[in-house]
Amino acid sequence: MLFHNIALIQAVIVACTVGDSYAQSTSTFQWPNAQLSYADLQLYEGDLSIFTDGCPMRGDSSTIPAQWLRLAYHDMSTHSVDDGTGGLDSSIQYELDMPQNIGEGMALSLNDFLSIGIVGPILGLADVMAMGVVFAVVGCGGPIIPYRAGRIDASTAGPGSVPQPQEDLATQTEKFKQMGFNATEMIMLVACGHTLGGVRQVDFPLIVTDVEDAFQNFDTTPQAYDNTIVSQFLQNTTQDVLSIGPNVTTRSDFRIFSSDGNVTMQRYHKK
Ligand code: HEM
Hints:
- It is a single chain.
- By secondary structure, the protein is mainly alpha-helical.
- The chain folds into two domains: 2-139, Orthogonal Bundle (Peroxidase, domain 1); 171-270, Peroxidase, domain 2 (Orthogonal Bundle), CATH 1.10.420.
- The protein is built from 13 helices and two strands; from the N terminus they run αααααααααββαααα.
- It has a two-stranded antiparallel ribbon with strand order 1-2.
- The radius of gyration is 18 Å and the shape is globular.
- The termini are close together.
- Protoporphyrin IX containing FE (HEM) is lined by residues 62, 66-67, 69-70, 73, 103, 105, 163-165, 172, 189-190, 192-194, 196-200, 203-204, 252, 256.
- Residues 63-197 form the Plant heme peroxidase family profile domain.
- Keywords: Heme, Iron, Metal-binding, Oxidoreductase, Peroxidase, Signal.
- InterPro entries: Ccp1-like (IPR044831), Haem_peroxidase (IPR002016), Haem_peroxidase_sf (IPR010255), Peroxidase_I (IPR002207).
- Destroys radicals which are normally produced within the cells and which are toxic to biological systems.
């Protein structure tokens, strides 16, 4: 299955964000460990799945899992391989006024995590957001992503380095490279992200110009973590507004998906 493989890349998102703090803690690692025990408790017996089981809608547009996945991706995108800073460190809570972080789902998702009573001195917001990705993907029928706690929450905003739809392919490729992903992984990441949810007209009026359809799903199965986004792209039946939208400048998915002549999309279409 395509997304079992893509899950490995998603696991990279979670894993790469453990970063230096994890490396330092391994030298003093002891078991039992209060933080890891609490993380296990939340993972296996906690309440996060209540939000994600069955990939539920949020209102009449997107789903909670889609919003949680996007939030974590944007938070992770501040990672710099050059200086080892950023990553999934919950800096997104200080970055919501940046143009690249527009979207109702961001604040709603943060509120989910902060209101459920899990975040505290033992398990920080970044660890809970990463756990949210695990539940989001499983809740929509995707694979179980390996999870590990130990992130350190940021206290300030990171750089505004999240790729934006109107940027050219070279700029986006360079930004993913800074996050630690090569051009093939960029294609896989965007495809596996955009298997869920879609684009809101109120937040992106230059992308979704059809006011009759205020929310446009990326594919016809927005509540399933599957490879429909890939198959419909290759079959020229895609409805992804970031691939075929009226504004050519913001056809970011099209540029990325086809950036290697569809080789990666074809490879994962066949799995
Ligand atoms: C060049 C890279 C990317 C661009 C330009 C981009 C752009 C966008 C835009 C404009 C939206 C609409 C948001 C809204 O209306 O609230 C969106 C939604 C979404 N993106 Fe991306 N994205 C990119 C990569 C990714 C990646 C790598 C992931 C995850 C691995 C991801 C996950 C999502 C999800 C799950 C949604 C749906 C959110 C919802 O339905 O509320 N995106 N993206």
